[in-house]
Amino acid sequence: MTVALEARPGRSRPSLVGHNLTMASGIGLGVSMLWFSLLVLIPLAAVMVTASSGGWAEFWRSITNDQTAAAIRLTVTAAAVVTLANIVTGTAIAWVLVRDRFPGKGLLELVIDIPFALPTIVAGLVLLSLYGNDSPLGLHLANTEWSIYLAFLFVTLPFVVRMVQPVLEELDLEVEEAAASLGASRATIFRRVVLPSLAPAIAAGAALSFARAVGEYGSLVLLSGNLPFESEVTSVRILSAIENDNQAAATSIAAVLLVISLLVIVALDVLQRRVARRG
């Protein structure tokens, strides 16, 4: 016996296409966009406008100044190297925290978040006491280029770990076990099964790490010495320009950092999408 199912008159399925916003949703969207504009869009637009206020020649002169160019190169290079290091070490730390059981695991979980909670000037003081001229470890890195890398590594440590860890916890171990039962090696399982799932989280953590490093200032005040052409970063150059009442130069440097950060974020997004598709 065949039973025909007919839709009841007067009742229709809700459409997901062309659905109008309710009054509450519209108000929420408007408040969100206003808040986002006040905190992000308008300040960024103001930076770009101020940077271009003196014309292209003045903008180019500000960012190609020998001292400024050296600071930009050092900052971007150190941030990129530290980000690559965080991708590897952060993923490894997250893997250990999720997949392994060992004494002191809770303490390690707590220690990883210290750079989030510690004021950056305090972080600089801690690093200076360990790696300054009176270093108990015998490592005298203060006032050198290596102090930049050290400070960046410290302040960006948690980003990749905390982005990857929850994703790794949600992965289904049965999929990995099935791949292993079919003869896949551990390297193949990680590359074809685990990595595509982790790629978006790794990319997000890497983007946050790079952006955090590029704008770092507090931990470098005591540690780097801010020596021109050796340990001076762009945040210090921006502060120097403002102190010298040269706001156009300060915003020009900030605009360069903004463009570089956006390009890195786009590149990481494209890379993680390709890794996810190939998986």
UniProtKB/TrEMBL annotation:
Assigned keywords, A-Z: Membrane, Sulfate transport, Transmembrane, Transmembrane helix, Transport
Annotated ABC transmembrane type-1 domain residues: 72-268
Localisation: Membrane
Spans through the membrane: 21-51, 71-98, 110-131, 146-164, 193-214, 249-271
SUPFAM superfamilies hit by this protein: MetI-like (SSF161098)
Membrane topology: Multi-pass membrane protein
InterPro entries: CysT_permease, MetI-like, MetI-like_sf, Sulph_transpt2
Record-stated family: Belongs to the binding-protein-dependent transport system permease family. CysTW subfamily.
UniProt-listed PANTHER family: SULFATE TRANSPORT SYSTEM PERMEASE PROTEIN, SULFATE TRANSPORT SYSTEM PERMEASE PROTEIN CYST
Subunit record text: The complex is composed of two ATP-binding proteins (CysA), two transmembrane proteins (CysT and CysW) and a solute-binding protein (CysP).
Function of the protein: Part of the ABC transporter complex CysAWTP (TC 3.A.1.6.1) involved in sulfate/thiosulfate import. Probably responsible for the translocation of the substrate across the membrane.
Protein name as it appears in the record: Sulfate transport system permease protein CysT
Organism expressing this protein natively: Nocardioides oceani
